Amino acid sequence: MITFEHVSKVYPDGTHAVHDLTFDAPTGKLTVLVGPSGCGKTTSLRMVNRLIRPTSGDILLDGESTNGMDEALLRRRIGYVIQHAGLFPHRTVLDNVAATPRLSGASKRQARLIAGELLERVGLPATFASRYPWQLSGGQQQRVGVARALASDPDFMLMDEPFSAVDPVVRSQLQDEFLRLQREIGKTIIMVTHDIDEALKLGDQVAVLRTGGKLAQLATPEELLTAPADAFVADFVGRDRGYRSLGFVAAAPGLVVRSEPSVPIGSSVEDARAATDDDWLLVVDERAHPLGWVEPRTLRAPISFSDLNLSGTVAHRTGTMRHVLDASLSAPSRRGVLVDEDGALVGSVTAAEVVGSLAEIHAAGVTTGGTAS
Amino acid sequence: MNLDWIVRESDSILVLLVWHLGLSVVPVVIGLAMALPLGWVAHRSGAFKSVVLGTTGLLYTVPSLALFVMLPSILGTRILDPLNVVVALTVYTVALLVRTVSDGLDSVPVETVQAAQAMGYRTLQRLVSVELPVAVPVIAAGLRVAVVSNVSVVSIAALIGTQQLGLLFTQGAQLRFLTPIIVGIVLCLVLAVVLDGLVVLLARRLTPWTPRAVHA
């Protein structure tokens, strides 16, 4: 556990970067610090490994005060990941990762062995080991950065905007992989981000800071969406709170899924028109995975990929209500496509049916319900 | 050109060449050793940095001949002592390289330095195993200038009679005889090119990690 006890940081010019911050980052959990620029989130993070010294207050690691600890030794106990990875340009990928176990006293051989394992763990092929950082993409560098932080097997990790320097597709992929990794390794993590969506997606708990370094609310992501403490938090969490809070509601087992007519890609015009009376028909591949929608009336030749309308998203039957509702709203037929764990077609639901089942869930008191102001 | 003269004098020309080599290289080695800590101080000294760099840079503006003549009285050496030349050129090398080392350390990406600090490197450990290796390309560029300029400045010491290729110039001028002057110029050029090439090679050996331009 990382404990902040009345921690403040005041700069000589009188600026309060952090003001009387008190909270716990529980063992094995990911705590996200989020807030607008100037809210002191990065300052707070850097006070944990004393890159910045608090003006007053204390930060404890598993109950032990960091005040007066040898700073280098303290830092070796805490993994650190930053925005642009900050890799050593003069060392190979393998030796970059081996640097932290080396600092903790491992032999060169041993450190490289550990580094090799970690590269595999963060999803980098062994062929990358001998490359230099400039030969890697931003996303790959970030993976190396994570591997390096984990290589000394620290109990604690600090992450400063770790995924914000890469494009949205890679970011989402890195986030998913990191969540999976964290479930296996269970480190005690504090992460800083300015991106509320990232905070809600990754955090076990989220601390929202306001300008001047004051804690506005510390809560689970779901609580932040459904019960923001004040207007600042509500505003920061943003619009679409009601909709986004559906991301924390599991797709209801009671949701009535109708069977959806479908034809395989390459079907003839006649088969397509015979399959449905509706304006839109779902097209699947040979494994029954949904591909897209066609309008049978406008077909002139057997269905090809260029005929497909790809606007509809696909939701997993065991996913969240947010995905299910989005699938129904995005499909041109207004019928949301549901698939099973393997991605094969299960059936469809309409937005009205999804909202209806939400009302039932709400009435049954299964969730706290959307009370966004 | 008088080839007979060259053949006849080849032994003494070789002696002058070796002296020239030594007087060029030794000050660079000593100067670099001194510039590393000084450059690090400049790099770390924030607001005072321009003061430190300005002061060392000023040394470079002292005319070399004046330095060669003044040093014996400061050091208590004889006027012909090669030590005067070594000290003078070391002063110039330091003047050049302090800025180079400081620039080199400035060129290390902020994220890299921060990451090293956050990982728990101690200050000296970080300097030796992270900052200096990353600064090598910039430092090597400055070192090339220092080596080549030393080869040329050493010859000025001929005016106070120190053994090196510059003596060929004074000799040629006194005898109104062109051959020694041409030999001196050619050997100085060759020496400069060879030493410059050695610095480049050494820098490449130290930086296998830099992106190399691919030439078709």
Automatic annotation (TrEMBL), chain A:
Limits of the ABC transporter domain: 2-237
Transmembrane segments: none
Presence of the UniProt keyword ATP-binding in the record: yes
The entry's keywords: ATP-binding, Nucleotide-binding, Transport
E.C. designation(s): 7.6.2.9
Keyword Ion transport applies: no
MF (Gene Ontology): ABC-type quaternary ammonium compound transporting activity; ATP binding; ATP hydrolysis activity
SMART domains in alphabetical order: AAA
PANTHER family according to UniProt: OSMOPROTECTANT IMPORT ATP-BINDING PROTEIN OSMV (PTHR43117:SF4)
Similarity-based family: Belongs to the ABC transporter superfamily.
Protein name per its UniProtKB record: ABC-type quaternary amine transporter
Source organism per UniProt: Promicromonospora soli
UniProtKB/TrEMBL annotation, chain B:
Parts of the chain that traverse the membrane: 12-38, 50-71, 83-102, 134-160, 181-203
Keyword Ribonucleoprotein: no
Keywords: Membrane, Transmembrane, Transmembrane helix, Transport
Compartments where found: Cell membrane; Membrane
Domain ABC transmembrane type-1 residues, every copy: 17-204
Listed GO biological process terms: glycine betaine transport; transmembrane transport
GO cellular component, one term: plasma membrane
InterPro entries linked to this entry: ABC_transp_perm/SBD (IPR051204), MetI-like (IPR000515), MetI-like_sf (IPR035906)
Lipid bilayer topology: Multi-pass membrane protein
Main localization of the protein described in the UniProt heading: membrane
Family to which the UniProt record says this protein belongs: Belongs to the binding-protein-dependent transport system permease family.
The protein's name in its UniProt record: Glycine/betaine ABC transporter permease
